[in-house]
Amino acid sequence: MSEIIDTFIAPPCHDEIEILWQDEHLVLINKPAGLLSLSGKNPQNLDSVHHRLVNIFPGCTLVHRLDFGTSGLMVVARNKAINAAICHQFSQRTVSKVYTALLCGHLADDDGVIDAPIGKDPALFPLMSICAAHGKPARSRYRVVERFYQQGEDGALLPLTRVALIPETGRTHQLRIHCQHLGHPILGCDLYGGLTLPGTARTPRLMLHASELHFVHPVSAAPINACHASPF
Asked: Rounded to the nearest 5 degrees, what angle is found at the Cα of 204, between the Cα atoms of 145 and 139?
């Protein structure tokens, strides 16, 4: 198999990382859309959450990542021991995350579960795909918040649904793929159909925001219930 080469070059991100809360062990931030979580191999992709924060908090490491286009809550560990402790919570699935998204079209049901395995597809890199034979189990829940219409760039009214998305597993691109699988891609998603509805081609960003993050502080054992409202 030939080597997969990632040719993506991130455009400059002029938005700042918002530090929401910090102590000597960890930092909670609001990541802007359009910023990599980790620097890429290409030197043009140096700017990232980690690259910026390590200058403020030497030795900090990422516990988890958000996609380039996704904004919202991230927890950053200030040392390796804290990272390991929070990663253990993620691996035990005791960390709860809620995302806010705008989906193309109006969903028929008010809530539901998407249970569809996800795997890498080298032929379609960097896309992932639903793959019953070789994919890893992936499960997401959704809840409709509102259905509405928004005027598109061509003047037509776009049917959109605001949803809360709760991933029960943590596969790459999981929410984006699952929403496409549902028949309602996330508005602005360039990889999984979110720019194909008439009037959506110039959507300024991926309409996906990590709005809630719930876990236990690894030192104090206090519950951390972080919330950050969606900007859209």
From this structure: 45
The token pair at 88 is: 């253990």
- Asked if pLDDT for residue 73 goes beyond 80, the answer is yes
pTM value is 0.94
Annotated active-site residue 67? The verdict is yes
Q: How many CB atoms lie within 10 A of CB 22?
A: 14
Catalogue the long-range contacts made by 218-227 (C-beta closer than 8 Å, 24 or more residues apart). 218/25, 218/26, 218/82, 218/85, 218/86, 218/89, 219/25, 219/82, 224/28, 224/75, 226/20, 226/21, 226/28, 226/73, 226/75, 227/73
Catalytic residue, candidates 6, 23, 67, 111: 67
Nearest CA to 214 out of 98, 100, 99, 96 is that of 96
Q: pLDDT tens across 179-205, in order?
A: 999 999 999 999 999 999 888 999 999
Task: Quickly list H helices, 16-130.
Answer: 49-53, 80-91
